Request: fold
Amino acid sequence: MKFTLLKTEGKARAGVLETDHGIVETPAFMPVGTQGSVKAIEPRELNEIGAQVILGNTYHLYLRPGMEIIEEAGGLHRFISWKKPILTDSGGYQVFSLNELRTIEEEGVTFRSHLDGSAHQFTPEKVVRVQRQLGSDIMMVLDECTPYPCEHEYAHVSNGLTLRWADRCKNEFAKTSELYGEKQALFAIVQGSVFPEIREQSAQALRGMDFDGYAIGGLAVGEPAETMYEMTELCEPILPVEKPRYLMGVGTPDNLLESIERGMDMFDCVLPTRNGRNATLFTHAGILNIKNAVHKNDFSPVDFDCGCYTCTTFTRAYLRHLFQVKEILALQLATIHNLAFYLWLMRETRKAIVETRFGQWKREITQKLRTEVPTYLRN
Reply:
């Protein structure tokens, strides 16, 4: 993997991430395909709207369909017929969200499957080996994602464990090889909850280990947005300029722009797909709830400025009807649009950075993104 920083405006960055499965132009949003599929949208449609990279999850894929099947298929890319880059999360967040079903120890985390209650253990070494079997372009270290809120002492102890696990992941990564002839990269994850000194310690220690890229985790878990931005600003100057930066689990369009302004390059979130399946659509004019009665006889497109299949083919009235009668097509069309909007937002952001007008452009669009679509724009 190679990352090239092409242009900056303030802390905002435009770059190119090169992998054996293709390039990713940053800033980049990664649609979430937790179980090997982005919900309610086909890989063909992801390609059509310009998705460059998707995210998979080690925990879920390890449990089902299992590593034997994925390895027999020739890796995750071949199993799901996705030819572009894939990033796999280590599954740490999912494991630690199991609460009563898991036990954390120095060696790793022992947990029971949410599917059948069977016992399993993830160690840093095992998580690396599993991601070797998946063949993802970007692998993540095993970390502990602390809950919000948590006590300072808990965050301190947890961060120490995460750092030791990161070191073990890096050692295992160095000792093992790719299984499918395609190079893989390993990203570290900065933790520390909302405590500045722990975040700084985490970022500095991980920088010293020299990973291929750096993620900031443990945010967007319930803390105020301003706190998330503060933690991001704190970590940014510590992280290597020449390495990609990934803010995990973020977020709204507004969150993305604010975080790009603070030096972040990569993002993932279920928000555009989940909101789409619940009839909430992101548009150039703001947020639109397509179930509202005002759209019953509104024969205009969802978004006048969007060129996606949904907006160029169907009307608000028809999409509302699909949701009202609970047709599966409603979920698909809404998901296509929301992801198309997110990907458009990243392309326009990148263009603005390259043309040194990001600050002005962000100010102009941010106010629209935060509002509900005004009545006069609904018909």
About this structure: The chain has two domains: 2-268, 275-377. The radius of gyration is 21 Å.
